[in-house]
């Protein structure tokens, strides 16, 4: 194939790609207000307390009644919490809440020495408590 | 330079025999309580408190403008009740000015008894069904009366934040003030604690306050006020709250 033909084809392909990207961007912009899952998601109020042998995490999941709607998992060294509201939370007249809130999402980095098998989570009065034991090496040192 | 503070009323009022203050602090106990009290007693918005020291915000409710720190008033029985309620966290640098301004204004208005409704954060709040309310006052007689109604005084330790400064100013200026502080969450809005302070307030004034709605809608209120709680936590840094977990040197 002659060089100029190859260059022409390359230019055409580049133009196709640019058009395809532009359409994708327009589509995303137009549909975002209708299908933007992140807008319906909030980070809950939370607190992390580190003790010598455990980490305790509390997250206020007000509006989440059913513990089956709470997903707690550890992925790598991150604690991930996702919870679905019992019903979408909307307040009449607040433009920033037009979409309503549907879920909580929270990610918390963890240290390396967590004891994965002994993590406990409980939901009480809409507050999630997660107790994460730490594997701690203990040495007793003689005091002289 | 001191910022200018304004206490503006839309109408003439009699000397209030009861004044109730609810300002954002731990668990938002105060503003939740005063907001509920205003609705329960059908009090009217009769004015506002304002200053360049508070965040430049205005609220709209049913399309009508509201200032963030509002004054409500009305009769409950024979008593004229004045409520000061804030929907904005008070910045640390404004605490001294606002406290002395409120105390001098209330002295000018010949206010009777002043109640500060608020919370005292406890670690084990999640396992407390009905939070206990404690009283703190500069007036031994007020504390004696609280005790006679089953409300124990805070025995030892620091109180920090805006209510501590109001207590200090009231002490210096001899204004009769009683803080009612219920056990509460530190950083989650706590309507259950607000219900407890209102019940204590009701015992001390002999005036009914129905708190059923606060208890029933606890989670919904927590959800609605989560952002105000976040702003309040940011504002609370450096307001002396950290001293509440400190043993003073006087115990040495």
Q: Based on helices, strands and strand pairing, what is the structural class of chain B?
A: alpha/beta
The ordered string of helix (H) and strand (E) elements of chain A is: HEEEEEEEE
What is the tally of helical segments of chain A?
1
What would the average pLDDT of chain A be, to the nearest integer?
84
- Topology order of chain B in helix (H) and strand (E) letters: EEHEEEEEHEEHHEHHHH
Largest pleated sheet of chain A: 4 strands, mixed
CATH topology of the largest domain in chain A: Immunoglobulin-like
Structural class of chain A: alpha+beta
- Shape descriptor of chain B reads globular
Helix content of chain B: 25-40%
Distance between the termini of chain B: 38 Å
**What fraction of residues of chain B sit in β-strands?**
15-25%
User: How many DSSP H or I helices of chain B?
Assistant: 8
- The CATH class name of the largest domain in chain A reads Mainly Beta
> How many extended strands of chain B?
10
Strand order in space, largest sheet of chain A: 1-6-5-4
Identify the quaternary structure here. heterodimer
Which SSEs are present, and which pair or pack?
The complex is a heterodimer of chains A (144) and B (252).
Chain A: H1 3-31, E1 41-42, E2 46-50, E3 54-60, E4 70-75, E5 78-89, E6 101-109, E7 120-124, E8 127-133
Parallel strand pairs in A: 1-6
Antiparallel strand pairs in A: 2-3, 3-8, 4-5, 5-6, 7-8
Chain B: E1 6-9, E2 18-22, H1 29-41, E3 44-50, E4 59-61, E5 64-66, E6 69-76, E7 79-86, H2 95-108, E8 113-121, E9 133-137, H3 140-148, H4 162-173, E10 177-184, H5 191-205, H6 212-216, H7 218-224, H8 226-236
Parallel strand pairs in B: 2-7, 2-8, 8-10
Antiparallel strand pairs in B: 1-3, 3-6, 4-5, 6-7, 9-10
Domain SHSP (chain A): 36-144
Family (chain A): Belongs to the small heat shock protein (HSP20) family.
Pfam family, one (chain A): HSP20
